[in-house]
Specification:
39% strand, alpha+beta, 7-stranded antiparallel β-sheet
Length: 171
């Protein structure tokens, strides 16, 4: 099992962040690696809610809620549909921790196994894990900018552009 955890503090309330991340069909508003996202059924929150994410520049994944802790986090089972890495047992755990009334720590824990045996393990070490980690870093940065500034993040180039402006404002 490959596992890693990423953390980022965001200057907004836990309730506001929960409103953003619990709207599962709107991840494309802050994740630069997601071109489009949508629900597959009428269940939009809670255990069993399912979304499809169309990735940039290509690919598609299905995400199903395995656990739902209202107001504080959820666990997604992630299944590749097309043009995705050879992974299995892929889960993402999103957690919110209130630091104070206007600051929240977001943590994302990723767990997965590789398909393809030894070749998959080698691919993971050479390419896949760093790409997944880069995607989670972009997700967190996009979420921070979206939550703090109200800006929808369109893609990785837009994320960099907004981040540079944001960095200059705060220096």
């Amino acid at each position: 099992m490959i596992a890693f955890k990423k953390l980022l503090d965001i200057d907004t309330s836990k309730a506001k962040l929960w409103n953003i991340i619990s709207d599962l069909g709107r991840i494309d508003k802050f994740h630069p690696g997601v071109q489009k996202s949508y629900y597959t059924n009428s269940l939009e929150q809670g255990f069993g809610a399912v979304r499809i994410c169309e990735l940039q520049p290509s690919g598609k994944i299905l995400e199903t809620v395995k656990e739902w802790n209202d107001g504080s986090g959820f666990v997604l089972q992630i299944e590749p549909i097309e043009k995705a890495p050879p992974v299995k047992n892929f889960e993402g755990n999103f957690e919110l921790e209130e630091i104070n009334l206007q600051k929240t720590r977001v943590s994302i824990t990723i767990n997965y196994d590789m398909k393809l045996g030894t070749i998959g393990i080698l691919l993971n070490k050479l390419i896949i894990q760093s790409k997944i980690e880069e995607g989670i870093d972009s997700l967190l940065t996009g979420l921070k900018l979206h939550a703090e500034m109200g800006i929808d993040i369109k893609d990785k180039d837009h994320l960099k552009e907004v981040y540079l402006k944001y960095s200059n404002i705060n220096n």
